[in-house]
Protein: Amidohydrolase 3 domain-containing protein
Amino acid sequence: MSSSSALTLQNVRPYDGGDPVDVVVRDGQIAAITPAGTNTAEGEAVDGAGRWIGPGFWDAHVHFTQHVIRRRRVDLTETHSAADVLDVVRRARAEGWPLVDGMLMGYGFRDGLWPVPASVAALDAAVPDVPVVLVSGDLHCGWMNHAAQSRFGIELDETGLLREGPWIQLLHSFDEAKGLSLSAYREAADAAAARGVVGVVEYENTDNVTEWSERTAQGLDALRVDIAVWPDRLEAAIAQGLRTGDIVDERGLIEFGRLKVVVDGSLNTRTAWCWDPYPGMDPSHPHACGLESVPIEELRRLLGIARAGGVEAAVHAIGDRANTEVLDTFEALDMRGVIEHAQLVREEDFARFAALGLIASVQPEHAMDDRDVADHHWAGRTARAFAFGSLHRAGAALRLGSDAPVAPLDPWVSLSAATARSRGDRDAWHPEQRLPLDVALAASVRSSLAVGQPADLVLSDDDPYAADRDALRAMPVAATLLAGRFTWRQF
Structure:
């Protein structure tokens, strides 16, 4: 919008209740909110026809390039066994699925409950002629054949699975992103805007400052983006004068965010760092309780550098041991920040989030995806798994996200999962951990429907408070505005 532009959204109903109002937007901010029809419209008048309005949504955790790339990979998300995966991959190869840099790439398998484990020999037999790289649904492991082993000079065991550090390093070395056009990113951003999203927190491990600034300069302007920096780029970013909260692009859409550190693995790969061993694991095995991806002393060193340089931190911690150690580290440094995932937390640690001023950034749909694997691998502990209700009752500040591509980049999916703890024909899983809708909505936004706030807004055709679980998940979005301009409109 130009400095003199204005817009009036007439006859809209606030999500938090009350009579219909007119919302005046001027210079990218909410300039006035008045009872509907009581004042002359300012600028362009848009009749909301009684639709519902609230602040636009933020997804607090995405891997945007991985989200875009997912569309180019063979879809394995509906598979439930190694045999299922092999059938899909074999069929894709036979039907001429496009190779990416000479590789057949797939995404979305989850092997945590497979009755028969993965096998490199079986993958060789299914596709013997080209490298095959299959990315797990949680991004924490890959299943590869011997052709991929030869290409990348890695060592695979009999399963063909590579997990955590070595795998993540390999994943980030692939050239898939080089073939992505700006239009592919724009399509994904527009799709997010069509679901009411105005901003995302980007945790891609790349040069986010340069890449996102280039995208907005080329016209990708449907989203605000809060970008992370990873440890290998931290000191260079500080040397450039970058601090948390700095705007780094000319459009004013890209904000320098936090240092991202990954302290442990994931539940599905049984690498989340826990206090108790995983079922069937020899307690004497060095990784019986998961693994410490970044040693805590190294975490403390990195966070110390970040704090001194004016950079806040976001630390990935999934297992209860990881969460305890990360809480201890933030406390020792007297530093605030974000704990990403917080999937399994000791009872005595819930209150520490609020006491230390830490944000719990959680992904509600993961609880729906992982409830069965949690019941198996965290047996006896799931009352404190994905425990959003416990965190809220203990006073923790919450932010909701998707971890896209791990779950859909759709805030309504997250809201439904957070408030219902069920989907499909299944009963609620640990219903005591459900969040009230007002709490879930507040954890999904960064502004409010109030004068002086950014005009980052979403209009829906239905009232979220009157929607049941499935209606909330599929909520029709009529319009999305970012700084007062429409990024999505369907009326």
The radius of gyration is 23 Å. The longest helix spans residues 320-333.
